[in-house]
Amino acid sequence: MSHPLVRHQFTAKVLLLLTLFTSLSAFATNGLFSLGYGARQTAIAGSGVAFPQDALIATINPAGVVFLDEQSEINAQYFSPNREYTVAGPSRAPAPNSPPPYPGGTVGSDSEHFLIPSMAFNWALSPVSAVGFAVYGNGGMTTDYSSTETPYGAGSFAADHAGVDYAQVFANVNYSRKFADGKASWGVAAIFNYSFLRMNGLSSFAAYSKDPSALSDNGYDRSFGLGFRVGLLGEILPGLRLGASYQTAIENTFDDYRGLFIHSGEFNIPANAQIGLAADIGSGVLTVDIQQIQYNENDTIGTSSLALRSGSQLGGHSLGFGWDNMTVYKLGYTWADDNGWTWRLGTSYGQQPIPEEEVTFNIVAPGVIEHHYTAGFSKTLANNKEISLALMYAPKKCVRGNSLFVATDTVELCMSQFSVDVGFSF
Q1: Which of 18, 100, 342, 356 is deepest in the core (most CB within 10 A)?
Q2: What are phi and psi of 208, to 5 degrees?
Q3: How confident is the model at residue 204 (pLDDT cuts 50, 70, 90)?
């Protein structure tokens, strides 16, 4: 990294990736969080907190970086979510005292195709220490419901297009160090966050907002935040390793939407933790992880929307999206043959975080996926280069509950997902 040409090439790669991130929307599989980062993690369903495979291990456990050879990892994911909602109930026409969404056919989001880049690098400082750098995306509630597909052409919430475009970008600078005669390590990462958000089609809630001018249709607003992730990794028995990490909440405030979110625009990124085992079994490695995402401890995401019925205002202190915490169980298996191929399989399950009574507000962000099924491989090429691929399928999941505004109506949210990751390491 000391040669000027190397520094310039590195800087150019970072700037290019950041440009891609700021022009593309991010994605969500476990509520607002990615299943995994990079093809290797995704192929084992986001498990592997105790199983470092590449420099993107810093995204879930910075302690793993010191066990890697120096490498660069570049990854691109094609992500295709299908989001839709259906309102059922007695037929009613638009009227001042009869707010949307109206009963009728199924309405689907037009935003279905995304390209998500990520990359990571690591360097040895000594036989027992290393540093790394990673850039990746997380979160994502990008939806776009056209009024032409809604009953009476009234829109999801009385607008031509209703929905959200929301993405988070992270730059992760990490340090890790071995101890216990090289059998264990600790790591810490400083996480620099850039988020952007645009809300459309919510102007019909002006009467419920503390600040109607900062409620909807104000274009993109941006926020910067800082957080930390700490981790441990160690061999507890021959062939059995334990890993654990914790990431702090990251504060974000969107002033242009202070009339929508709690505490005048607060929309923080929730804290999360992951713990897991990696066991040498047969010719491969079995990974078993548990991830906890603290949605309910986040005021904007976790506070119920039902207070709208009793006079609480959007942008105040007691009205949000009503999500529960989410616990995700992840299982993967990785094995290699003698011909330079590495194969991976995985599955995960986490009860989706949106309660039945909170479905109406969550039309704009139906993060209801529960099951993921994954598979992938890597192929070693010449000069220690490697190409990796991962496939992910999340079957359709629906949640149905009573409408927030009309007791005789029900709202059903549904979602399914598919993705393809391609990674290249060198």
Answers
A1: 100
A2: -100, 0
A3: confident
**Is cis: bond before 101, omega within 30 of 0?**
yes
Domain ranges for the chain: 4-425
| Residue type at 77 in one-letter notation | Q
Render 210-259 in DSSP notation, one character per residue: S-GGGSS----EEEEEEEEEEEEEEEEETTEEEEEEEE--B--B-GGGTT
Q: What are the DSSP calls for 259-282, one per residue? A: TTSHHHHB-PBPPEEEEEEEEEET
Question: For residue 29, what are the β-bridge partners?
Answer: none
Over residues 290-311, the pLDDT tens digits come to 999 999 999 999 999 998 888 8
Residue (of 235, 281, 229) closest to 250 by Cα position: 229
Q: Give the DSSP per-residue string, 277-315.
A: EEEEETTEEEEEEEEEE--TTSHHHHS-SGGGGGT--BT
Domain 4-425 has CATH 2.40.160.60: yes
DSSP assignment letter at 339: T
C-alpha gyration radius of the chain: 22
H-helix or E-strand containing 23? Answer: helix 4-23
